[in-house]
Amino acid sequence: MHYDLIIIGMGLSGLMAAKSAVDKGKKTLIIGKGTGSLCLFTHSIDVLGNLPGGIKVVDGLSQWVKDHPQHPYANLGWERLEEALSSFNSLFQSQYTFKCVDRENRSIPTGAGTFRPTYLIPSTMIAGTSSQNGKGLVVGFKGFKDFYANYVADQLNCRSIIISIPGFTDQELTAAAIARLMEKEDFRETIANEIKNQLLDESWVGFPALLGIRDPLRVIKSLEEIIGGEVFEIPTLPPSIPGMRIFRHFKEWLVQRGVTFLMGHAVSKANLNGKKCEAIEVSHPPLSQYYSADRLILATGRFIGGGLKADEEKLFESIFDLPVAQPGSREVWFGDSFFNAHRIHQSGILTDASFRPVDERGGSLLENVWIAGSILAHHHCIQEKSREGIEIATGYWATRYALEQ
User: Fold this and answer.
1) I need a surface site. Which of 33, 163, 359, 370 has the fewest CB within 10 A?
2) What topology does CATH give the domain 126-234?
């Protein structure tokens, strides 16, 4: 039960940490209660979305680091960030790829009828960046309520239609259920022919991002052959089928290379001896199992993943009891408006330049533990539109730094 590296957390940062370890030939264990926010929110890869239009991300990030010297990106810089993104992208070269355009953010339509800037765009969505050119059709499904086809069409100045799913006319359907149906050839043919019959002179068709889980490009190609126009995906409200694709592909790749997955398990306790973690306990009542490693990566996320918790007075980290940088009293955690930049979202674990945890004075806390992902302090990844970039880059580099020790 001894490993070179144990990773706690199965979100994007944990998966990137596992990939980095495998690339170095290390025996690796990854533990997680679930997939974190990856399968909830991830459709594309945001790096730093709140930049003025036309500014290359490399230039915007340099200024961002100067203005936010405590931000996780400040420990990386553009070259390290780009190396981590390249490592991520190397997994998606055969079928489902991610593309950037001129190192700039590009706006893609969303299922809520808005546009959002993002950096790496799945190949199934890249055509959506030019969807305002030419005449198009947005398709929604009756019974699927996490995609507002009419709102999307209004923003794109085009038509929308709602079609019924054969055999499920009066039922509500989940994203995963429709994605599985889309992988069946007879179902795709029925849907495609229904859309073809309703086409006027549209040159493209936008679907909610539900076009299969395993091979969405094959689904798109078969739809295009029948419809006779370009087909692309538009992100939906949670859950995220594109996020599920990323997780599935990562897991299969890592398992093939010998990574051990403990999914559905929570780390209940860390056994510490001075500044070293000697083992962790994984509780699965009525049994408990101990695992040890030379190095550990903590990538449990903030609140969704359970990495940070709160009592009536403060926030705390739930495994190693690391100090949490946070606002003062609970009264100032949240702003008066829902859309405020709530101060609680800047909370997290402080680290040194190599992502090892430190106290407020910069003192070392644990010598063989590194921190990665959204649990890091001093960023507001949702407002910044930087979540995937932070998770990929810190998961990659925290592991690289750990393995150098």
Assistant:
1) 359
2) Rossmann fold (3.40.50)
Residue pair 90/120 in contact (Cβ under 8 Å)? The answer is no
What stretch(es) of the chain map to CATH 3.50.50.60? Answer: 2-37+69-97+244-404
CA 322 from chain center: how many Å?
A: 24
Token digits of residue 39: 């399968």
Q: What is the location of CATH 3.40.50 in the chain?
A: 126-234
Please tell me the total number of residues recorded for the chain in this structure. 405
Kind and range of the H or E run holding 310? strand 308-310
Going from the C-alpha of 134 to that of each of 105, 198, 201, 208, the distances in angstroms are 22, 17, 10, 19
Nearest C-alpha neighbor of 48 from the set 396, 377, 398, 382: 382
Q: How many CB atoms lie within 10 A of CB 63?
A: 11
Q: Which amino acid is at 232?
A: F
DSSP letter for each residue of 87-117: HHHTTSSSSS-EE-BTTB-EEEE-TTS-EEE
- Measured CA to CA, the distance from residue 134 to residue 140 in angstroms comes to 20
Averaged confidence pLDDT in the chain:
92
Lowest mean pLDDT of 92-96, 279-283, 361-365, name the range.
Answer: 92-96
Question: What contacts 361, CB < 8 A, 6 or more positions away?
Answer: none
pLDDT digit string (tens) for 256-281? 999 999 998 889 999 999 999 999 99
Distance (Å, whole) CA 5 – CA 381? 27
29: buried, middle or exposed (CB in 10 Å: 19+, 13-18, 0-12)?
buried
- Which tokens go with 370? 């590194």
pLDDT of the residue at 235: 95
Tokens of 22: 């495998």
Q: Which fold has domain 2-37+69-97+244-404?
A: FAD/NAD(P)-binding domain (3.50.50)
Given a cut of 90, is residue 356 above it in pLDDT? yes
